[in-house]
Write a structure and sequence with these properties.
It is built from eleven helices and two strands. It has 338 residues and is an all-alpha fold. It has one domain. α1 packs parallel to α11, α3 runs parallel beside α6 and α9 runs antiparallel to α10. About 5% of the residues have low confidence. It binds NADP nicotinamide-adenine-dinucleotide phosphate. NADP nicotinamide-adenine-dinucleotide phosphate (NAP) binds next to α9, α10 and α11. NADP nicotinamide-adenine-dinucleotide phosphate binds next to α9, α10 and α11. Keywords: Membrane, Transmembrane, Transmembrane helix. Pathway: Protein modification; protein glycosylation. One of its GO terms (biological process) is dolichol-linked oligosaccharide biosynthetic process. It is a multi-pass membrane protein.
Length: 338
């Protein structure tokens, strides 16, 4: 099952990334493919009114984050519980977990004691995944908050139904990609807990006690890659929040609905889509924090870069067409490169 899930996710990321890369190749032979891709990908200001067929309101972006928060929270809590019970890193928690199981008469049918024999590297991998899910949780919760309280979606802004479905797919597949190497065992563990609950009943279930402080302590001891990855993630996270606040406040500067102004401040002074750049920084942080050895996470990152670079190029060209005085020294998304 593990291999099946991993293969499926990798195939899915390749399948959604390749068309975007092909559409981004600057060749006249591919112009009709580029136009088709733009038709699906453009939204809000970059979408032409003639493409309004098969669209949904752009404020439906909030649906992505509702799905993302529910799904990521579920994966985070079950993986965390699994890590705490089955993959302890400190000897105290190992003994606590073992003792608790003996005292509560941990049954052989339901207990996973054999998992304690797993190699240390495996246990580190499980805790690294807890950290990745925790970081993604911080991202999607903030995005949910922003879609409700920071972003200022114009009533006429639309999103193609294809982009809407891709967004829903993305927020199911992205959290799963971060934890796919241990998701099957976490799933089995959760299923066992639920079965135990059904068979024994609530009163006979051993209390699930998590020492949160010890868990956080474990996360801080994972290694230097996790520290650097978390720092990169937070750097992108803070800048994206600032850039979204700038965009959200721009409705107030516009003279009428659907009127746009040239944004400035924070990373807007260097690139046209700094919030996309920040998203790339955020996911780069996740790649580093993962240790860099998981191909599925690299493929997820490749999709994020390809997708946002394509959208940023469309946005940049839109700014150049719309504003004669648009700062010529601004790049589309990657400073001094693109
Ligand atoms: N991980 C991924 O693959 C992925 C994919 C897509 C998006 N995202 C993230 O989601 C966030 C939002 O993306 P998005 O595509 O919705 O961003 P966006 O198209 O730039 O729009 C964000 C909001 O700002 C408004 N806005 C943009 N430029 C403006 C201007 N010059 N004047 C006034 N208002 C302006 C937009 O209005 P209009 O709608 O009228 O343009 C919209 O309400 C981004 O940070 C992005 O990184 C991630």
């Amino acid at each position: 099952m593990e291999l099946g899930l991993v293969t499926l996710l990798r195939a899915a990321w390749i399948a959604v990334t390749l068309p975007i890369i092909v559409a981004s190749i600057p060749s006249s032979k591919l112009s009709s493919f580029h136009q088709l891709a733009s038709r699906f990908a453009n939204r809000g200001k970059t979408m032409q009114q003639s493409s309004y067929k098969f669209t949904v309101p752009q404020r439906f972006f909030s649906h992505f984050y509702v799905v993302a928060v529910v799904w990521t929270t579920l994966l985070l809590l079950t993986t965390w519980l699994y890590a705490y019970r089955m993959a302890p890193l400190s000897s105290e928690s190992f003994h606590f977990s073992h003792l608790a199981s003996l005292l509560t008469g941990g049954s052989h049918i339901f207990s996973f004691q054999k998992s304690h024999l797993r190699p240390l590297e495996h246990r580190y991998r499980v805790w690294r995944i807890v950290l990745l899910l925790l970081l993604l949780e911080a991202q999607v919760v903030r995005r949910l908050f922003e879609t409700f309280y920071v972003s200022n979606y114009s009533p006429s802004a639309r999103l193609h139904i294809f982009a809407y479905l891709t967004g829903l797919f993305y927020y199911i597949a992205a959290p799963l990609s971060l934890c796919c190497t241990c998701a099957p065992e976490v799933f089995k563990f959760t299923l066992n807990l639920v079965s135990e609950f059904i068979v024994k009943g609530k009163n006979k279930m051993p209390a699930i006690e998590i020492d949160w402080w010890e868990s956080v302590n474990t996360l801080t001891k994972l290694g230097w890659r996790q520290w650097i990855g978390t720092a990169i993630f937070l750097w992108g996270w803070i800048h994206q929040f600032r850039c979204h606040a700038i965009l959200g406040s721009m409705g107030a500067h516009a003279e009428q609905v659907d009127d746009y102004v040239i944004p400035s401040g924070d990373w807007f002074d260097i690139v046209s889509s700094p919030h996309y750049l920040a998203e790339i920084v955020i996911y780069a942080g996740l790649v580093v924090a993962s240790g860099g050895g998981d191909l599925t996470i690299w493929l997820l990152f490749a999709f994020v870069v390809a997708n946002l670079a394509f959208a940023a190029a469309e946005t940049h060209n839109w700014y150049l067409r719309k504003f004669e005085n648009y700062p010529r020294n601004r790049f589309a998304i990657i400073p001094f490169v693109y």
